[in-house]
């Protein structure tokens, strides 16, 4: 079974080098790797390109620089279904455990051939500080929560059947946040199954406090916080309008979201952020895309 890896990177050559080293220190090497580089600086692009050249079977691409979803699509579309069976998406600050690919293949071997192409494996992403991310589900209000039956994944510790991305793509209306949960909702709608595999582990070496998104934006909110809330609004409306249509749930979600968000922004002295949350959410594209369909 062939497992390929899509790596998205931006302005962090030192992380990219560690990420690639962990893949090539693996017991089972990836069948192929695509690095999609969203770095705007030509010097950083050149550094990343030189790092990539140190390893075999890697394709280097410059990214579209319009968000992580577009960058992931750029990477996965460079790997044809005929060239690989499964694909993983990891950011540049992720280091896979040495047995990550080996264990993924072993797990797929235990699944019937008929079900392999409809099974998503999700493991555990952990940080040196002890933060752990695992599969779960979205609550009614769109927050991640635990679940015995997985509906979301720990994206950097996840293996997808490559064929899925011939059917669906990452939603480029989402700049950042909840994009993996939204993708999983579409997978579930297509009757894919998410299987929690705690033996699949990756290390998240990044420092969110130094992320380029963790900067003051509007009021007391950071760019990261506004992007997350915009994405939660978009995914919530898409969930109840398009993916699993329910007029009552859509109405209640919108009411609760706007009520709680208003209170939250007021407490953060950031009511002026409301227009930007709406603008950045791109919810208008959901209403323009099609007429409401209930069923």
What does this structure look like?
The chain is of the alpha/beta class. Helix content is 40%, strand content 21%. It is built from eleven helices and 13 strands. It has helices at residues 13-24, 42-52, 68-76, 100-109, 113-116, 164-167, 179-189, 223-243, 247-267, 274-281, 283-289; strands at residues 3-9, 33-37, 58-62, 86-91, 94-96, 119-126, 132-133, 137-138, 144-145, 158-161, 193-204, 216-218, 221-222. Strands 1, 2, 3, 4, 5, 6, 7, 10 and 11 form a nine-stranded mixed β-sheet that branches. A two-stranded antiparallel sheet has the order 8-9. Strands 12-13 form a two-stranded antiparallel sheet. The longest helix is centred in the C-terminal third of the chain and has 21 residues, at 223-243.
First-to-last CA distance: 39 Å
Estimated structural class: alpha/beta
The amount of helix comes to 40-55%
Order of SSEs: EHEHEHEEHHEEEEEHHEEEHHHH
Q: Could you give the count of β-strands?
A: 13
Report the uncertain regions: 291-295
The largest sheet, given as strand count, sense and whether it forms a barrel, is: 9 strands, mixed
The shape, in one word, is globular
Specify the number of helices.
11
Mean pLDDT: 93
- The percentage of residues in β strands lies in 15-25%
Radius of gyration: 19 Å
